Structures are given as structure tokens and as C-alpha cells.
Amino acid sequence: MATVIAVANQKGGVGKTTTTLNLGFTLAHVGKRVLLVDMDPQGNLTAGAGAAGKCPSTVADALLDRSKPLPVAAVDGAFAGRLAVVPASLALATAEAALLNRLGREFRLRDQLQTVEQDYDYVLIDTPPSLGVLTINALVAAKYVLIPTEARFFSLEGLRMLQESVEEVKYLNPRLQVLGIIVSKYDRRLKEERTVSNYLRRTWGELVMKTEVGTNSKILEAASGGMSIFEIDGGERAVETYESLTGEVLARG
Ligand SMILES: Nc1ncnc2c1ncn2[C@@H]1O[C@H](COP(=O)(O)OP(=O)(O)OP(=O)(O)O)[C@@H](O)[C@H]1O
Ligand SMILES: [Mg+2]
Question: CATH code at 106?
């Protein structure tokens, strides 16, 4: 049975997709079989994994019609055979609205994943910057939630709201646990970031991952070029960071 991890934070641009993608690449790099699931109509995970347009159907089709199989696109290259993606496109935005009238709308992803998860060690689900039905589907399907956050004061309120949502989702998925909080896009030169990072560690203790993901242009370049951090020139520091983060994830879940 795969370990299913949702990566969530309703605040936008905090590094959800980057975390999902690079954790996925790194888990595949250490030999795990990984399925990445894109639950964001923006489709950034799909593009970042180089899977845009590879499948005729997307996750939206399988959420709306339970008789349709979950579309899975293999990722070629270095991780061939160990990494695959369930793609999303803008159609997921329309599907989200349509789902609101469907029975069992919160359980659609969980039920679809149950048919494929025996083929993987880890399933990582990227979510949109909202607490709507798509994010709820991810949290209901998952055993763990991983929360990337920026070390900014405005991010703290978002964290509190997400924690409330996790508590509420436990009504539908009692086994859901927070795997960890990741300080991402961290710039230790900024006093605000150092202060908030210290505050996070004091408040959330061990839940905050030891590995901080610093601001790193190679992480940005790799994602926008549809490449992994393992393939990009000068990506060694990014690789080291994600290897360390992956080590913590493996130790926790
Ligand atoms: N450590 C980093 N260093 C530099 N750039 C980064 C880093 N992490 C993420 N980024 C860049 O910041 C932007 C936002 O990151 P990302 O897309 O992962 O956030 P997100 O939470 O998924 O956003 P959204 O809420 O829109 O889905 C992207 O352009 C990404 O490439
Ligand atoms: Mg994203």
C-alpha cells in the first residue's frame, strides 16, 4: 500500500508544487515508485513533470465519472518506470464546480487512488491555493499532509486556517495527520524571515521540518524548464536540500 501525502496550504505561491515535484523526483531517485497527482487546475505540477498534453484525459474526467480510470502518464528520462503523473488541466476548474452537485464528492479521489495505489510506494498530491472541494478530496485521500509555508507574518494566519481544516477533514478521514511543515523559499538575509522561522519552530516544535528550502534560482529554472533538479546544471545545492528533506519524510512516513 502506498503512503499517500497531500501537499497543501491555501496560501498561493508558497512552494506546494515545487515541494511535490522535487520530493517526487528525489523519492524516485532513491528507488521508490512514485505517483504524482495534480489536483490544481493551474496544471503546474503536470507541466513541471513534463507531462502536459501527454494523456488525452485528465484527473477531472476520473473525478466526474467514477467509471473512468485515473489517467496516468509515465515520466520518461532518468526516472522512467519509477515516476508517473496524473495530469490536470484548466478543465479541472469546471469539474470542481460540477462536483459540488455530485454525491460523495469528497471521496472521489480517494476511491480512484485505491485502484492504483498498489503500484506505488508514495502518492504525492499537489493541491490548489484554496480550501475547496479539490483540496478536501486530497486531504480525504491522504494519510499525511505536508505544509509548505513561507517564513512571513502573513503566512501564519494561513497555517492556522489550514490546521482548522485538517481538524475538520478528520470527520471524513480520521487517520489524517500533519507530516510536517516546511519552511520554503527561505531567505535568511531578511530579518522578518529569520524571526518568523524561529517563531514557527517555537510554536510548532518538531512538526517543523529541520530542512529549510532556501531561495534558489536553480529550483525555479528546473521547474519552468520541465526538468528535474537532478538534470539541471548547477543544481547540486538544490539536490542536497531535497535529499535532506526526503530523508526526513522517509523517517516520518
Ligand atoms: N526554493 C525556491 N527558490 C526559488 N524559487 C522558488 C522556490 N520554491 C518555489 N519557487 C518558485 O516560486 C513560485 C511559486 O512556487 P510554487 O509554484 O511551488 O508555489 P505553489 O504554492 O504551488 O503556488 P500556487 O499556490 O499558485 O499553486 C514558482 O515560480 C516557483 O518556481
Ligand atoms: Mg502550485
Answer: 3.40.50.300
* Ligand 1 atom at shortest distance from the alpha carbon of 238: 1
- pLDDT tens-place string over residues 4-32: 999 999 999 999 999 999 999 999 999 99
Edge-to-edge strands, sheet with 144-149: 73-74, 83-86, 34-38, 122-126, 3-7, 144-149, 177-183
Alpha carbon of residue 220 to chain centroid: 16
Domain boundaries, position 152: 3-252
Report whether residue 46 contacts ligand 1, using a CB cutoff of 6 Å: no
Q: Which residues sit opposite 73 in a β-bridge?
A: 85
Q: Ligand 1, atom 5: nearest CA belongs to which residue? A: 220
Note the pLDDT of residue 200: 95
Give, using CA atoms, the residue closest to atom 10 of ligand 1.
220
Query: Count of domains in the chain?
Result: 1
DSSP string, 157-199: HHHHHHHHHHHHHTTT-TT-EEEEEEE-SB-TTSHHHHHHHHH
Q: What are the phi and psi torsion angles at 171 (to 5°)?
A: -60, -40
What cell numbers appear for 39 in the block? 489536483
Cα(121) to ligand 2 centroid in Å equals 23
Pocket-testing residue among 7, 9, 10, 17, ligand 1, by greatest number of atoms within 8 A of Cβ? 17
Ligand nearest to the CA of 15: 1
